[in-house]
Design a protein that fits this description.
2 domains, six-stranded mixed beta sheet, 6 strands, 15% strand, globular
Length: 290
């Protein structure tokens, strides 16, 4: 029988491993594999938000958000998203735009530092392609010319991983996908750093506090999903009722409006509502005023 472990792709384990400055060697090794960052860039990595998980997380279905800066000031933003959202691509662009704009203060010129996002998903994000790894920049596909790499987005989709390793990065992604001790052992020999990471996961899996943190995370996720399902179902039912009276098109519009209002009444963030409904921020504001 396979021995269960705390999954490395959970918020709890990811933050305990990569958000801990004492494990900077693990983070540096993963970054070098994910974005081909030069060795000297990793020598002075600084974790901008080195916060360990809270004992009792708020009831928000979140994502792992780890920000680091390199020796030359590059900003690297790492996220693991376990649940699909219709507006995930928009959210990443929104985050990156803010990280770029946030570098410019009053009276300063446009000497921007590079922003790189590493997005690991536990679902298929780029359905248009069979590849598990993509690199997106500002690029003219017709002329095959890159305008700039100042903004770069790397996506890694765990469900698309091949069964056999193709590059060193494959071992890290299989590490994140592991759910049993046997699956961890499969990649442990890839390098001394990954073996160290697997050993730490095994240790965390036996730690009572870490298991409690993970359980709280799971419970918060279940609560959040139930809240979303309830808001959507309520909105759909209302939309159906009004749709029968006012027509199908208007009914669907009213249904989305009901979902927006229900989620606002539950104090859900506007960005989260946008992700869930696929509506733009302006559309949400309009519906909220109805």
């Amino acid at each position: 029988m396979s021995e269960s472990i705390l999954p490395p792709k959970s918020n709890t384990v990811f933050q305990l491993l990569f958000g801990d400055p004492r494990n900077i060697d693990l983070l540096a090794d993963f970054l070098k594999a994910a974005i081909d960052i030069p060795e000297d860039e990793c020598r002075d990595i600084v974790i901008v938000n080195p916060n360990l998980p809270r004992e009792y997380p708020d009831r928000k279905l979140g994502i792992v958000d780890l920000r680091v800066t390199t020796r030359t000031g590059q900003i690297i933003h790492v996220e693991i998203q376990r649940n699909p959202f219709p507006a995930m691509r928009d959210r990443i662009i929104f985050y990156d735009a803010n990280m770029l704009a946030g570098q410019i203060g009053e009276g300063k010129d446009y000497m921007l530092k590079r922003v790189v996002t590493i997005l690991i998903t536990d679902y298929v994000l780029i359905s248009e392609s069979p590849f598990y790894h993509h690199r997106f920049t500002l690029y003219d596909s017709g002329a095959s010319v890159e305008f700039t790499d100042l903004l770069e987005i790397r996506t890694f989709e765990l469900p698309k991983l091949p069964e056999s390793p193709d590059v060193y990065l494959w071992n890290w992604l299989r590490f994140f996908r592991a759910e049993t001790k046997e699956e961890l052992e499969m990649v442990a020999n890839a390098s001394p750093v990954i073996r160290k990471a697997t050993a730490k996961v095994k240790k965390l899996s036996k730690d009572e506090r870490a298991r409690l943190l993970h359980l709280n995370e799971v419970m918060a996720r279940m609560y959040e999903l139930s809240m979303r399902d309830g808001a959507m179902q309520e909105g759909i039912e209302k939309g159906r009722t009004e749709g029968r009276a006012e027509g199908r098109t208007e009914g669907r519009a009213e249904g989305l409006t009901s979902v927006v209002l229900n989620m606002l009444q539950r104090n859900r963030p506007v960005a989260e509502i946008a992700e869930y409904t696929g509506l733009s921020l302006d559309e949400i504001k309009k519906r909220a005023r109805c």
